[in-house]
Amino acid sequence: MKKILLPVSVASLMMLATGCVAPNGPLGGTMAAIYTDVSGPVAVTGNSGCSKIGTAVSKGVICVAWGDSSIKAACQNGGISKIQHVDYHVTSVLGIYTEMTTTVYGE
């Protein structure tokens, strides 16, 4: 029992030290272990016109995450009913703090 307890304890501490908030973005985008600050596309439609912008944010610290960074939330926040395109932005520091922003452009 003692032989198993030590490796399990060490592995658990390593997981806690590295954090568990992963900044992969909606499409599994670029990720770095120390600092990540990336943006990218999510979707494009055939709708023209881009008079409104809506954003939605979710955040995570260590093993706790909160917020709604869905496209639906971004549309509601910007009063958008016709989407032109959607982008995302992810910021992460050491996997301890992560922020994901979804930006929707449309009318």
Largest sheet: 5 strands, antiparallel
Relative helix content: 10-25%
Radius of gyration over alpha carbons?
18 Å
Uncertain residue segments = none
Query: What fraction of the residues are assigned to beta strands by DSSP?
Result: 35-45%
Q: Helix count, per DSSP?
A: 2
Q: How do the SSEs run, as a string of H and E?
A: HEEEHEE
Distance between the termini: 63 Å
Count of structural domains: 1
Physical arrangement of strands within the biggest beta sheet: 1-4-5-2-3
Q: How many beta-strand runs? A: 5
Mean pLDDT: 83
SS class: alpha+beta
Q: What is the molecular shape? A: elongated
Structural overview:
The chain has helices spanning 2-18, 71-78, and strands at residues 35-44, 52-61, 64-67, 83-93, 97-106. It is built from 2 helices and 5 strands. A hairpin with a 3-residue loop joins β4 and β5. It has a 5-stranded antiparallel sheet with strand order 1-4-5-2-3. It has one domain. It has 107 residues and is of the alpha+beta class.
Fold blueprint:
Blueprint: H1 2-18, E1 35-44, E2 52-61, E3 64-67, H2 71-78, E4 83-93, E5 97-106
Antiparallel strand pairs: 1-4, 2-3, 2-5, 4-5
